[in-house]
Amino acid sequence: MASVMAPTTRRASAVVPGSDPEGAAEGTGHEALVWMGNDGRPRRRGAPCRCVTCRRTGYEHDRLESFDEAVDFANEEGMYIAAFNHLTPFPGTPLYRRLQAEGRLRFDAWWLDPAYRYNALPFVPRGMRPEDVTEGCVRARRRFYSWPGILRRSRHHWRDAFVLRNFFLVNAMHRNEISSRNGHPLGDEAWQGPLLEVQ
User: Fold this and answer.
1) pLDDT tier at 42 (50, 70, 90 boundaries)?
2) 3-class secondary structure per residue, the chain
3) Most trustworthy range by pLDDT among 27-36, 65-74, 99-108, 154-163
4) Residue 52: beta bridge partners?
5) CA separation (Å) from 134 to 60, 66, 124, 162, 179?
């Protein structure tokens, strides 16, 4: 993916394929929300880039090395922030129907199941255990938001004092959230009232 030039006035989304060509064909990749300049022209790879990148894992061709590859890419490009999340089958989607037909859903309705926890993979992937994907996502976030990682990436953003100041604030916030939400229930476990039914 080519980094893009400032000033940051509009956004575009891009998918950066992973190293696995089969996975790229399936949609595996680094999805980046890229802040574009007025002329929209890309700059050379490695130029300063204010991007939000998201790497979803759990695709059929993902493997344990996919997590480190995603972090390496985000660090090399000096990404402002990044999210390392697993693939989520939402009800009513083709993915949900396919996994349901294949008997690979771990919960009938993960979004309502009291046993489901934040960061848990709601289905059984191919080639990895569900726990591998959960641990890989958390490990990737810890590595990306480590203080050495934050300091290295800050070198891509030093030319703008406002951006640099916010870079440290935003990255510190994301760093603090890594463990605070992991393994938490989706709702309030103490809630005793009725649940709303959605058709």
Assistant:
1) very low
2) CCCECCCCCEEEEEEEECCCHHHHHHCCEEEEEEEECCCCCECCCCCCCCEEEEEEECCCCCCCHHHHHHHHHHHHCCCCEEEEEECCCCCCCHHHHHHHHCCCECCCCCCCCCCCECCCCCECCCCCCHHHHHHHHHHHHHHHCCHHHHHHHHCCCCCCHHHHHHHHHHHHHHHHHHHHHCCCECCCCCCCCCCCCCC
3) 99-108
4) 33, 81
5) 15, 13, 12, 34, 12
Predicted TM-score (pTM) of this structure: 0.72
Distance CA 72, CA 79 (A): 11
Rounded to whole angstroms, how far apart are CA atoms 72 and 11?
23
Structure tokens at 66: 């996919």
Residue with tokens 């344990």: 64
Whether residue 20 contacts residue 29, with contact meaning beta carbons closer than 8 Å, is answered with no
Total residue length of the chain: 199
Of 70, 85, 62, 59, the closest CA to residue 144 belongs to 70
Q: Are 110 and 90 in contact (CB under 8 A)?
A: no
Domain boundaries of the chain, sorted by first residue: 10-88+128-181
